[in-house]
Amino acid sequence: MSYFLVKHCTGAALPAQSASSIPCLDDYEVLRTLGAGANATVYLVREKHTSSLYALKAVDKYTVDGRKVACRAVVNEQVALSELNGSDLILPLHACFHDTENFYLVTEYLPGGDLQQLQISRVLDVEAVRFYMAELLLAIEHVHAHNIVHRDVKPENIFIDMDGHVVLGDFGIAWQFDRDTSTPDGYFTRGRVGTPAFSSPEVLFGEDYSFEVDLWAFGVILYEMLSGKVRVDCLSLRFIPFKVENIGGIPGQHCSG
Ligand SMILES: Nc1ncnc2c1ncn2[C@@H]1O[C@H](COP(=O)(O)OP(=O)(O)OP(=O)(O)O)[C@@H](O)[C@H]1O
Ligand SMILES: [Mg+2]
User: Fold this and answer.
1) CATH of the domain at 136
2) Can 170 be counted among the known catalytic residues?
3) Which of 76, 93, 108 delimits the end of a domain?
4) How confident is the model over 192-239, as pLDDT tens digits?
5) Dist. CA 158 → ligand 2 center (Å)
6) Where are the alpha helices (DSSP H) in the chain?
7) What are the pocket residues of ligand 1 if the criterion is a CB atom closer than 6 Å to any ligand atom?
């Protein structure tokens, strides 16, 4: 079995690992479940040799029509988090590894949960909304400055750290434009991915789109937070995920193992 790994990422290329330092599930004690999404379950874990707490995302290695679909999403997330590492606004990546069942991403544990949980637990006043949305905008700008479009900006993917600051996570369907082949007018991609309730018309209709799809999602979240309502035209879309076969990704990244 081969391992694609990075530990203590620096934001540059993924460093090679010596066999003795390859992380594995045995390094961690699972404490409880933090959340779950379409393809992954996230656990609170304690690293045994440091006693530090982390979030461990386990992504099932399943196949659709013989293709390892989850593979692409998890490598996407690993590459995007490594590229963006070092910013307080982006979820810090600590380690990645896999076994026969799952891929694992170990990230910093953010005890504030996500913005959706926060919205459910209390009514946010205008000042709180202004604060969270301003920080979210900075996070989105940082992502775009690295030629990456997130494509799944939504409250469940916006985490809150120990000090109450916004941290953007879940880069499983992010897309990185190729610096060499894209012209200033050529930053376009397509693919019906993401969460329909937060998706722009271009995404929903399968047309070309660029960075602005993240700003559309930002607008939907702002509306929801200020009004306390879900957009009526989105109610029927809210729980309908796009088909997983349509997942695109960061070009040039392949998964082994
Ligand atoms: N680092 C973290 N600290 C605290 N809670 C987290 C952390 N990472 C994830 N969670 C919780 O787990 C939930 C799911 O995480 P995430 O969005 O990364 O995965 P996902 O939606 O299952 O991924 P995918 O869309 O790739 O299937 C989050 O909404 C959040 O509540
Ligand atoms: Mg998510």
Assistant:
1) 1.10.510.10
2) no
3) 108
4) 888 889 999 999 988 999 999 999 999 999 999 988 776 655 555 555
5) 8
6) 69-84, 115-121, 126-145, 201-204, 212-227
7) 34-40, 42, 55, 57, 73, 91, 107-110, 113-114, 156-157, 159, 169-170, 172
Distance 207 CA to ligand 2 centre (A): 24
All residues with CB under 5 Å from ion ligand 2: 37, 156-157, 170
In a domain, residue 101? The reply is yes
pTM comes to: 0.82
What is the bridge-based pairing of β-strands 53-60 and 40-47? antiparallel
57 a known binding residue? yes
One domain, residues 28 and 98? yes
**Domain end: 62, 88, 108, which one?**
108
Q: Do 142 and 87 contact (CB within 8 A), yes or no?
A: yes
pLDDT digits (tens, 9 = 90+) for 156-195: 999 999 999 999 999 989 998 887 665 666 788 888 888 8
Ligand 1 centroid–CA 232 distance in Å is 26
CA nearest to 195, candidates 213, 209, 177: 213
**How many separate domains does the chain show?**
2
Q: Are 113 and 55 in contact (CB under 8 A)?
A: no
Cα separation of 190 and 124, whole Å? 35
Both 135 and 231 in a single domain? yes
- For residue range 78-119, what is the model confidence (pLDDT) as tens digits? 889 999 999 999 999 999 999 888 899 999 999 998 999 888
